[in-house]
Amino acid sequence: MEWSSRHYLIAFNMVPGIGGRRLLALQDHFGSLALAWHAPQHILAQVKGIGPKTAERFCALRSSLSPVEEEVWALKFGAQIITLADEDYPVYLRRLAVPPPVLYVRGKLPSEPGIAVVGTRRPSRVGIAQAKHFSSHIIRQGETIISGLARGIDHCSHEQAVQMQGRTIAVLGSNIGNIYPPEHVPLVDKIIENNGAVVSEFSSRCPTVPGNFPRRNRIIAGFSKGVLVVQAGAKSGALRTADWALDLGLDVWAIPGEISDPLRKGTNRLIQQGAFLVTRPEDVIEGDSSTKSSAKQSMKELYEAGLHTNEIAATLGKPIHQVLAEISLLQVKGTIGN
């Protein structure tokens, strides 16, 4: 069987150590992934970013890798595989500097980005209450909640969404056949039943290791039009999700807390660095859809008139981060040109 572009993407994604950046390097060096796949080891080792160890690992594995068998494996878990070569690959993920080349999807992906709700794995009772309160408002506004299926704040936000029969997307740090943490398997089923989805970029060959989770965080940001950090310590992974959101020009909101509380050090620092301080759900997303529609139309007119983003922000009286986020959203929708 002759492989298509998507087959090569799936197969390369099954090789440990070959992710989006190295795939780009291979594509640039050889001109096609097909040529890269069949290249000899000593040539592969010369590719920038690949090196001898990755080349050796790849050559030892490639004869045993089958993208067709990988698709059969995904189907066993009720999932489909979507690649960068496919037309139904989410447009909003293409905003990332290095989009995940392959997605394993159980359920239905939203047509538009949602609102990420993230935070510590060990929240206080107040943090749990805040996650549920803010998530409820986001769902009532018809938005999709994006999070990482982790214990703590992630779990609370997903759970609140399904309780309200709203849509939520869970981005995994494990492959779809090895849901982590395992106690969240029933929650995964509820998410899918409520028209949401569970997504992973990790193949059947990929174990669940700590390095997976920072990679997952960038996809959470890619699925979002803004990130709410509910409660996070100084080293929380939620802060990295916020960093990815800022790289995309998206809004970041943070709930403040007592300065001596270690679970608020991260959120308080985000506010110091320019994140929006929020004390009520309405601070995250406005409930008046007519106002939002009018603002987007006005922004569309200003953008198409050739105004710089700084000029648009000044004209509308909005923060530059918010203007960049709304322009990105309009581009994703195809309302304005890139």
List the main descriptive attributes of the protein structure presented here:
alpha/beta, 46% helix
Explain this structure:
This protein is of the alpha/beta class and 338 residues long. Helices cover 46% and strands 11% of the residues. Strands 1-2-6-5-4-3-7-8-9 form a nine-stranded mixed beta sheet, sandwiched between helices. Strand 5 (168-171), helix 9 and strand 6 form a beta-alpha-beta unit. Residues 287-297 have low confidence and may be disordered.
Strands ordered across the widest β-sheet: 1-2-6-5-4-3-7-8-9
**Biggest sheet architecture:** 9 strands, mixed
Helical content, roughly? 40-55%
Beta-strand level of the residues, as a percent range? 5-15%
The geometry reads as globular
CA-based gyration radius: 21 Å
Return the structural class: alpha/beta
> What sequence of helices (H) and strands (E) makes up the elements?
HHHHHHEEEHEHEHEHEHEHEHHH
Mean pLDDT: 90
Distance between the termini: 38 Å
Helix run count: 15
In the predicted model, the low-confidence regions spanning at least 5 consecutive residues are 287-297
The strand count comes to 9
Brief overview:
Helix content is 46%, strand content 11%.
Describe the secondary structure blueprint for this structure.
Layout (H helix, E strand, L loop, with lengths): L4 H9 L6 H11 L2 H5 L3 H4 L6 H11 L5 H10 L3 E4 L18 E6 L6 E5 L6 H16 L4 E3 L5 H11 L4 E4 L13 H9 L3 E4 L11 H11 L1 E6 L7 H11 L3 E4 L10 H8 L3 E2 L11 H16 L4 H8 L3 H14 L5
Parallel strand pairs: 3-4, 3-7, 4-5, 5-6, 7-8, 8-9
Antiparallel strand pairs: 1-2, 2-6
